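User: Please fill in residues for this 319-position structure.
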């Protein structure tokens, strides 16, 4: 049974890697307070020597990021979408229709009533590559609530409300509703505190929930990782047999939740350019898994450059 679960998770990771081919989620230039910035590498003032500033992608990609100025929590509340519409029961929900979905403009949300414009994989592909009109189910799930994707995590069919999509599905296609960025392709933003990540091809434009790296308080199985000056939830693409302390890594989200891909020279025993290292609390005793090899909790940010609330953030590495 354990082997079958690991195999299913491995297949899911492979599928999501293909689905994320055009989206670099981390290393973004987002900042709290609504100021928009273009993409940037790493966290501002970081002393971590992070090995990379992007998530696992099939191709090099550029993203932009903005932070929302609203007051609704990224994990609760609603996005002010069309859930109040009186929609008839959706007979096709739970099935994957043959052929592509009707084309639409995801920024204009110009689908007919009781439908939503959402990213999906056209022509039966394994990556989000188009926008199409999908039915909105009666009593749809709201922001941060558990959801179910139909057929696959990239089908575009789910039970989230208009303006939302089912994100980070597990092997059972159960994930949580995440918001789509609003505004326009040249001026994207989020309606609530979050990081707006836009793929290089513009298909995916999603509002990543903010999080605390020490608490790892992301929904589902997501990891809390740096996104410019902020910290946001990202898919964990480490796979079932990788991502632990000291394991080689190439991308920020190639490590298990609670760890980050760091400069290999800062991780004991690392023989590659990057290896996974745990976050730690500078005010707590040394609990680093590799402390017997010299690891200790060292500051993630340079002295005086940590943002409010992150003064005690550290990572397990060589001093």
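Assistant: Residues filled in for all 319 positions:
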């Amino acid at each position: 049974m354990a082997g079958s679960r690991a195999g299913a998770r491995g297949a899911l990771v492979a599928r999501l890697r293909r689905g994320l081919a055009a989206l670099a989620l981390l290393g973004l230039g987002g900042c709290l307070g609504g100021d928009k910035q273009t993409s940037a590498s790493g966290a501002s003032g970081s002393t971590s020597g992070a090995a990379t500033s992007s998530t696992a992608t099939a191709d090099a990609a550029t993203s932009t990021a903005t932070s929302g100025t609203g007051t609704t929590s990224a994990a609760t509340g609603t996005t002010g979408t069309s859930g109040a519409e009186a929609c008839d029961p959706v007979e096709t929900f739970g099935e994957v229709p043959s052929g592509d979905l009707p084309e639409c403009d995801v920024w204009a949300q110009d689908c007919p009533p009781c439908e939503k414009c959402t990213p999906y994989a056209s022509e039966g592909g394994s990556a989000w590559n188009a926008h199409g009109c999908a039915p909105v189910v009666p009593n749809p799930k709201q922001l941060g609530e558990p959801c179910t994707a139909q057929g696959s995590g990239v089908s575009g069919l789910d039970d989230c409300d208009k303006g939302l999509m089912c994100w980070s599905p597990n092997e059972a296609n159960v994930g949580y509703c995440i918001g789509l960025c609003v505004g326009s392709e040249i001026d994207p933003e989020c309606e609530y505190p979050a990081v707006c990540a836009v793929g290089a091809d513009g298909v995916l434009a999603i509002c990543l929930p903010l999080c605390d790296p020490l608490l790892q308080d992301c929904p589902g199985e997501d990891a809390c990782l740096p996104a410019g000056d902020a910290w946001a939830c990202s898919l964990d693409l480490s796979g079932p047999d990788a991502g632990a302390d000291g394991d080689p890594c190439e991308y920020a989200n190639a490590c298990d939740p609670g760890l980050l891909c760091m400069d290999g020279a800062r991780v004991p025993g690392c023989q590659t350019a990057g290896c996974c290292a745990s976050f730690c609390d500078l005010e707590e005793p040394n609990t680093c898994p590799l402390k017997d090899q010299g690891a200790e909790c060292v500051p993630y940010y340079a002295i005086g450059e940590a943002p409010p609330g992150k003064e005690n953030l550290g990572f397990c590495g060589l001093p």
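For context: The CA atoms of residues 190 and 263 lie 32 Å apart.
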